[in-house]
Amino acid sequence: RMTHSIEPETESLQTPSAVVIGGGIAGLTVGWSLSQAGWDVRVLESGNRVGGAMQTEREGGYLIEHGPNTALESDPRITQLISSLGLQEEKRIPEQASKKRFILKQGLPQPLPMSPQAFFGSGFFSWKAKLSLIGEPFRPAGNPDHEESLSEFVLRRLGREFLDYAINPFVAGVYAGAPEKLGVQQAFPKLHELEQRYGSLIRGQILGARERKKEGRVSKQRAPMFSFRQGLGTLPERFHELLGDSILLRTRALRISKDSGRWLVDAEQEGQRVNFHADHVIYAGTAHQLPEISIEEVPTSELETFRTIYHPPVSSLSLAFPRNRVEHPLDGFGLLVPEAEKRKILGALFISTLFPERCPGDQVLLTVFIGGTRQPEYASLPKQELQELVLKELKPMLGTNAEPVHVFHRFWEKAIPQYEVGYGKIRSKLDALETSHPGLHFTGNYRGGISVADTILHALKLTDLLTGTSN
Questions:
Q1: What would the pLDDT profile of 401-451 be if each residue is shown by its tens digit?
Q2: CB-based burial of residue 213 (10 Å sphere; 0-12 exposed, 13-18 middle, 19+ buried)?
Q3: How far is the C-alpha of 307 from the C-alpha of 237, rounded, in Å?
Q4: Letter string b/e over residues 226-241, b meaning 16 or more CB atoms within 10 A of that residue's CB
Q5: Are 43 and 27 in contact (CB under 8 A)?
Q6: Sites in the chain below the pLDDT cut of 70
Q7: CA dist list (Å): 287 to 250, 303, 325, 327, 442
Q8: Which stretch of DSSP H or E encloses residue 275?
């Protein structure tokens, strides 16, 4: 085996340098941002492609997302990033028809009321639930020192019906998770903050909206969704194009240590040992893969904690049907399935309503999600069995009266990190590692939020910290 050492050019010895481990969206964002600030950067990606879970498949007349389907433009910095990458013209906003959200109730898709007027005028929630909401501002705030699950929090502030038919399906759609396991402070810190700061979610929404307006931010509920003409995969592809040789594929980091005051990353690249010296090392891989890397002076047992973060398995099945063989108009974003309905899928996105060009014009395209914390055993079923299960589920819900014309399947063995009650200890451990090892940093969807936007923003904040910029 040969050992290579990649050092900065002689004339750029004063240039700050960083090795980024992981070529997902966090690693690409921080790598690109540091390179734009004049740093010497190497991004090490163990796989054959960048993008992590952000994977777009383009086949024939179909465009399929195997990971996230959309991202939120919840902060001006997301807009600035898209613009700096030259992707503003490629951006696509979902069709107006997709504003509606369906929830399965009593076996049928029912539109979720999306405004106060719709809420009180709709029969979706009972009068008991409506009265409970009216009483929400008068309920006392919880003990800030008691870490609650999301279900405890919602039951205390809003009641059972909201938990079962609003929060439970929403959590299944976002986290593929369960409200009784997720910690409200960890997974939904804004809810906890609203209660503690304003004493009420409703008061907090009203007063918080004014503050966000002043700061140029928008709430996640109101933030515009976007993708790109050729899918979200456009984003990592563009990063790769711009970073060029700074990205090293099929390069797996093995060990991080200190060498003469600088960081040394030992790696394996297609059977050969290589090493990289840098001022900073940024781990941007997945949380559960962190223990596979040896870090000098950090006991293996301490890193094993990160392997215990639960990532439930999820399968996504994208199915194309002839338009005239689906009874439901599919006039919305999608359909979420509450656990109380006792079905075998988490929900379905109406992809051809969001982005009509993603399948032939005489067809509709649905992406169905199976498994998660709720029913992990279904996620790993073979494609044919999954297809049979999904078709059986969809027929009474949406009136699918035909075999699909085309089926795409993706199984994620470890899908989304669950910010469960007690997750604060994981975050504290990461903080402590960074404090005790100056120059070592961590970023990714296990740190500052699981969404695409949160992951990008955490990476940008880290860049600010490293470059001494404030935003």
A1: 999 999 999 999 999 999 999 999 999 999 999 999 999 999 999 999 999
A2: exposed
A3: 29
A4: bbbeebbbbbbbbbbe
A5: yes
A6: 1-13, 212-221, 470-471
A7: 19, 10, 43, 43, 9
A8: strand 272-278
* Token couple for 316: 């996504």
Q: What is the DSSP track for 301-348?
A: HHHHGGGGS----EEEEEEEEEGGGB-S---SSEEE--GGG--S--EE
76-84 and 452-467 helices cross at what angle (nearest 10)?
80
Q: What is the pLDDT of residue 114?
A: 86
pLDDT, tens only, 214-242: 666 666 667 899 999 999 999 999 999 99
Number of other CB atoms surrounding residue 60 within 10 Å = 8
| Claim: this prediction has a pTM higher than 0.85 | yes
Helix or strand (DSSP H, E) at 42: strand 40-44
Residue type, 291: P
Residue percentage of the chain with pLDDT more than 90? 85
* Both tokens assigned to 121: 């005028």
Q: Which H or E run contains 20?
A: strand 17-21
Q: Judge whether 22 and 292 are in contact, CB under 8 Å.
A: no
Are 319 and 407 within 8 A, CB to CB?
yes
